[in-house]
Amino acid sequence: MARNEDAVRPSAFTRYRTLILIGGVILFLPPLAFIFQATTGENGFCGTWCPRMFFAWRSGTTGAQFLMGMARSFMGVALVAGILAVTLIAGRFWCSHACPIGGVMELGSRLIPKPLKIDFSTVPAAPVRYGYLAVYLIAPALGIGALCCNYCNFATVPRMFGAAFSEADLAYFFRAYGLINLALIAILGFLAKGGRAYCNFLCPLGALDALANKLGFHFGKRIAVTERACNGCGACVEACPTWAIEIKDGKAVVDQLSCFPCGLCMKACSEQAVVYDWKGKFHEEQAPAAPSYALTCRGGKELAG
């Protein structure tokens, strides 16, 4: 079978990913927050655009009240539905390219010297992520308490940007939960290798998106490894910001519950073994004869670290 060169060649979405991340920050976060200003006149995710609160059922809530909550957050509902639909077919592009919350943490982590960064790759992401999601959903249902608002990444990061312009945003960080959130963003975001530990552990939306990614693997386009081309060097493992790749029996294996299509592994691979393609083609392609993209671009700054 002829090799699909498009599957191994990083797309414009990968080559210009940093600019796309910066664009997401400008569109969604203060002081500009263009998306919110142009649609609902609000200045953040709290309110009509909330992507987290509407799917958490609180103790004592009736079905009608739950539906009313979804109606109040109709833009957030539409956003989550769109994210999951795209993920099923094409992979987690919201998390890898568009999310301003994860984008801020990843971009910030690139400014931190490597000796100061914390490597969380030894921590199994899925058990922590879905344990947190279970608490996020079960605690309010039992009336124990809620993590929806006070401990929300979609509230904390925008307030970091808005604190210089809003007394309310500044005051948030003088409360206990504001300081806790700030510490989590710093440790699991800015100080984490790859900048995505918070996304991998504590984001409910990311947890749902990862499930959609796993489900869509059976029919959608995904990052995967062509086994016959992989030499097990581990360069992709080192590049991955969500530690979604590991070496098993001398070959790289991608965990679809943690992977998103950032393309950093494709850039790092000297053998063009990492592909972004439809299921069924991952193991059918012949090893590449052409020079690797990584050999000409390895000096790029987008490797996780």
Can you tell me about this structure?
The protein is mainly alpha-helical and 305 residues long. The chain folds into 2 domains: 13-214, no CATH class; 221-297, Alpha-Beta Plaits (2-Layer Sandwich). The chain has 17 helices and 4 strands. The protein has helices spanning 5-8, 12-15, 17-28, 34-39, 63-72, 74-90, 93-98, 100-109, 125-141, 153-162, 167-172, 176-190, 197-202, 204-216, 235-239, 264-268, 293-297, and strands at 221-225, 245-248, 251-254, 274-278. Strands 1-4 form a two-stranded antiparallel ribbon. A two-stranded antiparallel ribbon has the order 2-3. A hairpin with a 2-residue loop joins strand 2 and strand 3 (251-254). It is globular and about 55 Å long. The model is unreliable at 286-303 (pLDDT under 50).
Overall SS class: mainly alpha
Task: Outline the low-pLDDT stretches.
Answer: 286-303
Radius of gyration: 20 Å
Count all strands and give the number: 4
H-E string: HHHHHHHHHHHHHHEHEEHEH
Order of neighbouring strands in the sheet with most strands = 1-4
* Percent in strands: 5-15%
